[in-house]
Amino acid sequence: MENEPRGAILQRDKQTYAIVPRTPAGIVSPEHLENIVAVVRRYSIPVIKMTSGQRMALVGIRKDDVEKIWSELKMTVGQATAPCVHYVQACPGTVVCKYGNQDSLSLGLELEELYLDMNLPAKLKMGISGCPRCCGESYLRDVGVWGSAKGWTVTFGGNSGGRPRIGDVMAKNLATDDARDLVRRLLVYYRDNGKPRERTARFVERVGVDAIRKDILASAPYIPAGEP
Ligand code: SF4
After folding, report:
1. Is the pLDDT of residue 226 over 70?
2. Fewest CB atoms less than 10 Å from the CB: which of 12, 16, 90, 222?
3. With a threshold of 0.90, does the pTM exceed it?
4. 134 in ligand 1 pocket by Cβ < 6 Å?
5. pLDDT at residue number 114
6. Which atom of ligand 1 is least distant from the CA of 94?
7. Measured from the CA of 98, which atom of ligand 1 is nearest?
8. Which CATH number, 3.40.190.10, 3.30.559.30, 3.30.200.20, 3.30.413.10, labels domain 85-217?
9. Range scoring the smallest mean pLDDT among 53-57, 87-91, 165-169, 220-224
10. Which of 65, 51, 46 is nearest to 23 (CA)?
11. To the nearest whole percent, how much of the chain has pLDDT over 90?
12. How do the domains of the chain map onto residue ranges?
């Protein structure tokens, strides 16, 4: 919106703003934490809210302070309203979790970096989990990926909102390169065929999971016909 400060969302009081610094896959550095604490103190920001997307919302910021805070934070803007990838949440996976089958953290970081600037019909969230316990909430995200000992399962069309939907399995037991490639195909297909503001859950319901699978998997040599 014109005249709105960069990367800021007007709050209920119609006077103050919230900002959400980007924290890919929920990872923050000591420097980022120190900068956050410093701006919260300096600008008397009343609320730091942990979001469901593994991000920190700084809430109750005066309009004139927004740009100064961004420059002092030295962090990039996390998208909160634009039609694009808002975040990729990821569990720790094999990096630290004893149950991990796959490296969900690395894949999550990579996917966020790859698709950060991709324009889409609506906002999109991804959830990457290192094992079937799905701590990364994969089945409830637009694009979900979770690992087993045999490889990655990729799901599409999940949503945890007011009309919740469990994502459909698009393929199972994929190598990392193939899972990454399938995520790309799904995003491109959704970008090219989704209606404006249509989330993937509604998109899958409208187009049909079988049609999507057929269109996408027909050109994916790594997935045998009829799978999953
Ligand atoms: S999904 Fe599995 S690997 Fe990831 S945190 Fe949960 S238990 Fe650990």
Report:
1. no
2. 12
3. yes
4. yes
5. 96
6. 3
7. 8
8. 3.30.413.10
9. 220-224
10. 51
11. 88
12. 8-73, 85-217
Residue whose Cα lies nearest atom 6 of ligand 1: it is 135
**How high is the mean pLDDT of the chain?**
94
Give the residue, out of 54, 89, 97, 128, with the most ligand 1 atoms within 8 A of its beta carbon, to mutate for a pocket test: 97
Ligand 1 atom, smallest distance to 100 CA: 3
- The answer on pLDDT for 89 being more than 70 is yes
Q: How far is the CA of 89 from the centre of ligand 1 (A)?
A: 12
Q: How far is the CA of 107 from the centre of ligand 1 (A)?
A: 14
Q: What is the CATH number of domain 8-73?
A: 3.30.70
Atom of ligand 1 nearest to the CA of 131: 2
- Tell me how far apart the alpha carbons of residues 200 and 167 are, in angstroms, rounded to a whole number: 9
Decide whether 8-73 matches 85-217 in CATH topology.
Answer: no
